[in-house]
């Protein structure tokens, strides 16, 4: 097999440096916030993998069923010769697209992009082995920082799956879509996965599962800050309080301080005095309406070509072209 190429755009101390910045900036906001990137160390990535297998976590199954039913149409509509995947993780569902591309015979290159080097290398090796003749170029990078370094040439489809765009705040989403639209060439496209608004009961169940895996996943951010920056967050004094915000149409995943307490984060030179009941916002997961997805894509300079949803209408895949 041809070995995958790897482009490493993150310096070895990137994680440490940007965690310090994020802790200083995020934890001084109101509510105090940490960017979701810090959920995904090796343990967090394994927990997320477990989330995708929970019965309550419908987005994974919903998106997979769309890909199972429509991958061939997506591939034909894109006309792509290069597939770029942002936040690729294990690229598990992407194989449905790669299979369809293989059947159609036009794809020459696959470029998965992820911050997690270990996960990316493993995925790139497996895909290079499974799809002989496909040039695999892994990019270790942050899709909010390194869009300018994506492979150029050919007709590209950029896949951004899983509903991950919902983890960005509105301003971040605008900046991200605008930057992405600017670097696409005419004929290039974006395949965007978004979770859709539905009953609050089902939404909350998906982020507050009975096995407690999502809670462990969210709490892992505190463990990461303790380990990386020598902090003394005490898990037992926080409770997990996710809720559906009907105004912002997003799940808001918080940890609430159950006692008045002081937390020290030596590696960031930060001391936090938390009041009883004070909440840390660890992640948001925005849910969309099809009309709003189109409006945001069009505001960024992209034109919606097709929208696919699963049968119950839980999740959407939108193909937008430059
Ligand atoms: C796949 C990253 C979009 O928001 O549903 C799952 C992350 N967080 N459970 C999502 C997540 C808590 C997930 N994303």
TrEMBL record:
This is L-histidine N(Alpha)-methyltransferase. Keywords: Methyltransferase, Transferase. Residues 21-320 form the Histidine-specific methyltransferase SAM-dependent domain. It holds the Pfam family Methyltransf_33. The keyword Disulfide bond does not apply. Transmembrane segments: none annotated. Gene3D superfamilies: Vaccinia Virus protein VP39 (3.40.50.150). InterPro entries: EgtD, EgtD_Methyltrsf_superfamily, MeTrfase_dom, MeTrfase_EgtD-like, SAM-dependent_MTases_sf. It comes from the Bacteria. It comes from Nocardioides aromaticivorans.
């Amino acid at each position: 097999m041809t070995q995958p190429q790897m482009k490493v755009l993150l310096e070895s101390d990137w994680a440490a440096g940007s965690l310090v910045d994020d802790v200083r900036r995020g934890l001084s906001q109101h509510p105090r916030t940490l960017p979701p990137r810090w959920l995904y160390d090796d343990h967090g990535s394994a927990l997320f993998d477990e989330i995708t297998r929970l019965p309550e976590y419908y987005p994974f199954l919903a998106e997979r069923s769309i890909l199972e039913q429509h991958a061939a149409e997506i591939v034909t509509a894109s006309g792509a010769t290069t597939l770029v995947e942002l936040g690729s993780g294990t690229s598990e569902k992407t194989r449905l697209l790669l299979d369809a591309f293989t059947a159609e015979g036009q794809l020459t290159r696959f470029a998965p992009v992820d911050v997690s080097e270990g996960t990316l290398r493993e995925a790139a090796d497996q895909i290079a082995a499974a799809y002989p003749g496909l040039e695999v170029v892994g990019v270790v990078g942050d899709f909010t920082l390194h869009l300018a370094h994506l492979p150029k040439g050919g007709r590209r489809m950029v896949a951004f799956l899983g509903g991950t765009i919902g983890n960005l705040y509105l301003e971040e989403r605008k900046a991200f879509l605008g930057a992405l639209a600017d670097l696409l060439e005419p004929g290039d496209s974006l395949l965007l996965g978004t979770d859709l608004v539905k009953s609050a009961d089902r939404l909350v169940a998906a982020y507050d599962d009975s096995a407690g895996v999502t809670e462990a996943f969210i709490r892992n951010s505190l463990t990461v800050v303790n380990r990386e920056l020598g902090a003394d967050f005490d898990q037992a004094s926080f409770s997990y309080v996710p809720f559906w915000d009907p105004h912002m149409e997003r799940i808001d995943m918080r940890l609430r301080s159950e006692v008045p307490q002081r937390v020290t984060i030596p590696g960031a030179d930060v001391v936090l005095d938390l009041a009883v009941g004070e909440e840390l916002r660890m992640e948001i997961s925005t849910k969309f309406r099809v009309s709003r997805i189109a409006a945001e894509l069009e505001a960024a300079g992209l034109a919606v070509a097709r929208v696919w949803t699963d049968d119950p209408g839980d999740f959407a895949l939108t193909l937008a072209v430059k």
